[in-house]
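Supplementary notes for students who missed Thursday's class. We covered one full example, reproduced here. Read the sequence, then the structure, then the short commentary at the end.
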Amino acid sequence: MNTDLSERKAIVCGSTQGMGRAAAEELAILGATVTLVARNEDSLKTVRDALRGGDHQAVCVDFGETDILEKRVNSHVERDGPFHILVNNTGGPPPGEIADAESEEFLDAFSKHLLCNQIMTKAVLPGMKAEGYGRIINIISTSVKQPIVNLGVSNTTRGAVASWAKTLSREVASFGITVNNILPGTTNTARLHSLFAELASKRGVKSKDIEEEWLSEIPAGRIAEPKEIAFVIAFLASPAASYINGINLPVDGGRLMCL
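Structure (token representation):
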């Protein structure tokens, strides 16, 4: 099985922590030259310097500033492209019931997820087409298949991204480009523990109580580690996954009740 990425360049968004960082590390292990994209310059330098091999790069930008993102990413791609792999990844919106959400919350979430994904994709697509090789991998959520209670804005936004990706996958397949979605379940990240704390505060219980409640729904009986998500991303980025296109792939320890 060919998982060699030594001749490939990758861009990984949200890559200074959690699943994004784990994905960048795994792609580098397989030989890819990685560009990290995140908003904290010090963290970017720390992660970049720790990656295995290669002339890895970093782009410091906040996904809340789409105009600046577009300019910086386009400039980087023009200078260092073409890129063969794009991992779209952005932290999720705050929890809350959908009936209580303000319009601004939806606008902010759609901008940081759907619009930023579109900006990143438009920047790399011409190079992928010219190279005859492209892998666009979106880290979304299992809420695409089964909405998660008290994550109203997130559920809505993730569903939109999944539909965007499926549409794109059919448009670019003939160029040797695949577009797939990773749907992580409960994964050991700072975002998860922040979510536990917020939900616990709203319900007047301890974070540990929320964690145990979520764990009870996972047949595997444990929370995933970020590297377990990264292994799947790295496979989908490889030549071995050339005929996998347009799918939503849960990586959730069996938590989802649907097929």
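Commentary. The longest strand covers residues 177-184. The mean pLDDT is 97. If anything here is unclear, bring it to office hours.
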